[in-house]
Automatic annotation (TrEMBL):
CDD domains registered for this protein in UniProt: TrHb2_Bs-trHb-like_O
Keywords: Heme, Iron, Metal-binding, Transport
UniProt keyword Lipoprotein present: no
Family: Belongs to the truncated hemoglobin family. Group II subfamily.
Record's keyword annotation contains Metal-binding: yes
Matches recorded under SUPFAM superfamilies: Globin-like (SSF46458)
UniProt xrefs under Pfam families: Bac_globin
Matches recorded under InterPro entries: GlbO/GLB3-like, Globin-like_sf, Globin/Proto, Hemoglobin_trunc
Gene3D superfamilies, alphabetized: Globins
Name recorded for this polypeptide: Globin
GO MF term set: heme binding; metal ion binding; oxygen binding; oxygen carrier activity
């Protein structure tokens, strides 16, 4: 096994700088999405910061989210919001667009999205017909 085989996704992505760029490219897309925008506050600053902390940890970087907020318990934290399969798809679509916008290589983007799919669909708590 070489050193490159032992690198985390966080490192392969480019670390803190890339995670920051990703969340800053992602949230304007969320704000403009008709299915997602109603779920978020108008001031996304705290949401962006929490997403930065969480994704850093989720992709194998420092445990920033847990250090500040404790165990992520992401499904429980998302329960107050009506999350449908359609919204999970929209969230993933916005994330894919943000990853492309910041120039992540296609193979890495596809791998990261596949990893995020598990979480996105795990948060579904409402039927698509509202």
């Amino acid at each position: 096994m070489t050193d490159s085989d032992r690198r985390t996704l966080y490192e392969l992505m480019g670390g803190a700088e890339t995670i920051r760029k990703l969340v800053e490219a992602f949230y304007p897309k969320v704000q403009n999405h008709p299915l997602l925008a109603p779920l978020f506050p108008s001031d996304l600053t705290p949401v962006i910061e929490k997403q930065y902390l969480f994704l850093s940890q989720f992709f194998g970087g420092p445990s920033l989210y847990s250090d500040q907020y404790g165990h992520p318990m992401m499904r429980a934290r998302h329960m107050p919001f009506p999350i449908t399969v359609e919204r999970a798809d929209a969230w993933l679509s916005c994330m894919a667009a943000a990853m492309s916008e910041i120039g992540l290589p296609n193979d890495l983007r596809d791998f990261l999205l596949e990893r995020l799919k598990g979480s996105a669909y795990h948060f579904v708590n409402s039927p698509d017909t509202e």
